[in-house]
Amino acid sequence: MAYYLGIDVGTSGTKSLLIDAAGKVLAEAVAEYPMHQPKPGWTEQDPEDWWQATVATVRKVVRKAKAKPADVRAIGLSGQMHGSVFLDAKNKVVRPALLWNDQRTVAECDEITKRAGGRKALIKMVANPALTGFTAPKILWLRNNEPRKFDKVRKVLLPKDEIRRRLTGEFAGDMSDASGTLLLDVVKRQWSKKLLSKLELDPDLLPPVFESEQVTGQLTAAVAEELGLSTDCKVVAGAGDCAAGAIGNGVVERGVLSTSIGTSGVMFVHSDQPEYDAEGRLHTFCHAVHGQWHMMGVNLTSGGSLQWWIDNVVQGLAGIPKGKRYEAATAEAAEVAAGSGGLSFLPYLNGERTPHADPSARGAFVGLNLTHTRAHMTRAVMEGVVFAMRDSLEIIRSLNVPVDQIRVSGGGSKNPLWKQMQADIFGQNVVTLNAEQGPAYGVALLAAVGDGAYDSIGEACKATIQVKEQTKVDRKAASAMDALFPIYQDLYVALKDSFQKIASLQ
User: Fold this and answer.
1) Residue 13: inside a domain, yes or no?
2) What is the pLDDT of residues 116-174, one digit of tens each?
3) For residues 128 and 354, what is the distance between their CA atoms, to the nearest angstrom?
4) Residue 116's domain spans which residues?
5) Where in this chain does the record put each Carbohydrate kinase FGGY C-terminal domain (predicted)?
6) What residues act catalytically?
7) Which residues contribute to the annotated binding site?
8) Annotated binding site for substrate
9) pTM, whole model, 2 decimals?
10) pLDDT tens digits for 92-118?
């Protein structure tokens, strides 16, 4: 038998799944771990938690599938992007990893922009502006704020690439994930020697980078024994979670866009050429499709906003177990008409990336009156999340990038209300797919390509991924959403200065 393993090192947990060569999911498992917030706006994790979760989930899926060691031919790796794992000369972690949603690096972003010769010069070098979530500012933050620890650093790895090192003993990365470091020449698909020089960073800090389906090593004997696998098992380069999720959604050709509502929200569109938003509001990254690119808008707290609302505020659902509060709350919200009675929610609970690039942005309800209920507020939170994603879609459309089909995934594909909201707020029918396992599924397909089961990732996606159902636009609801959307956009502009003052107090 030929089986392929996908491992996704997420923010809240690691997911592993096993597929056969036809793309059928044989087994899957998830192990959770904490995210630490030592200060407001700071987010960190212990890479050892990722490793322990990887071991636990891989062993579980191998056992569930009753797979023999030789059956698992290759592994694909995905993970949260932008995180920084700092290793010393003995490959020991120097400090907890700084994560994608960490906002401490405002000064370092300014430093990078200045050293590069300005925002336009920086975008010309690496296709993107300096944002707090990216990896390069984190490296400079360590140098500026914890110099003794920085002096020990010999390698900087992204989260999934630290797992690769533990699996194979090799340092390696892939083009899509490396794009989010701000240190990759995205057009030439190689590390930017020019920017590294301007930042006075040693290129040897970074691992070699590969196309996503290329083999980067094989399991060490010790790890193979620990996982119940074979040393013949290959490990391919894999992809950052956004690109991996797009592979899992079959977004491998022009005209197809995917949305994903997880902790963050992502709008992802394929591009045959590196296309740019001149204002730097969208990311232009290498795709996990060999020699291709994509544009992407990211909202930092999408599903995370609803999770915050339910966990910390919705305490009035008496008698309902915690695990069912999500369904109960969204069922209440479904009874409220589109537009939430004129109530708006800004989902900027941890700053925002697209389109504002503002770490000081904060969440807000605006428009509350005495007629509003908990159900109105829940619906407003959900609508606010989708409005934030429409911000990205509007930019994509303004650049004349075709969007012929919108594929929804993540939590936004599993809840009927959120699917309908996306259709209505985007003003376009949306579809869901037969494959709903996300990034782990995408990199399992990359592993199959790397092992030779398919000639290309496009071929693999066509063979395994099909449209399952369509959610059509409700024109009355869409009209209400169109009326509310410009108000939503105006609110950030009106509150921006106040957000900065509030952030300074926090």
Assistant:
1) yes
2) 999 999 999 999 999 999 999 999 999 999 999 999 999 999 999 999 999 999 999 99
3) 12
4) 3-237
5) 258-449
6) 241
7) 81-82
8) 81-82
9) 0.87
10) 999 999 999 898 999 999 999 999 999
